[in-house]
User: What shape does this take?
Amino acid sequence: MIKDDNILYDLAELFKVFGDSTRIRILFSLFEEERCVSDIAQTLSLTQSAVSHQLKILKQSKLIRSRRDGKQIYYSLADDHVRSIIGQGLEHVEE
Amino acid sequence: MIKDDNILYDLAELFKVFGDSTRIRILFSLFEEERCVSDIAQTLSLTQSAVSHQLKILKQSKLIRSRRDGKQIYYSLADDHVRSIIGQGLEHVEE
DNA sequence: TGAACATATGAATAAATGCTCATATGTTGA
DNA sequence: TCAACATATGAGCATTTATTCATATGTTCA
Assistant: This one.
């Protein structure tokens, strides 16, 4: 399997996004259902600002998507790739 | 699926290791076969020192293993988890 | 329209981290 | 044993990055 350096660079960028405990915890909090920003912040004991900053990064990486409902914005996992990647990682960590 | 914060922390640490282009390129260079340090360095146009430092991190994370053969030390992927994780990541990046 | 609420964002700071340089450790063969 | 080679390692530096604080943007409802 031969891969272009550009693809490997993108791949590293992707894993870098997963490689932060705040972001992983945010992603994990979205495993079951969508959540709004203040909900995530409260659940994880984080600042609203900190959560927003990380949500932005997660969104730019297309790992989550959002929808507005009134004053709140609900975030959810973008697709099952996110679950698969985290699942594979967990297998390695949990053994 | 409920996960302990400690496990999520470990998970982030794991992804952090994958989240560097040098380390990803090293891992990728080991996909087919084991390689010694100088070989990796030459193939990827990196310093011997830089490679050694990163190999140490990869080894501590149990992503690679090593065996000595004379003056050289050959590194190889630790198990198929590494391939799986990278594979899942590639699916997301390549679409 | 204007408070009150929810979220986003920019700047600044502190901490983490990858690379380089110099050098140490380990191995072989003469 | 010692020179030559392969790899490992520590310190220092430069860059990246996560968080905080202050504030801006966007939405609702009275």
Q: What stands out?
A: The beta strands of chain B are 35-36, 64-69, 72-77.
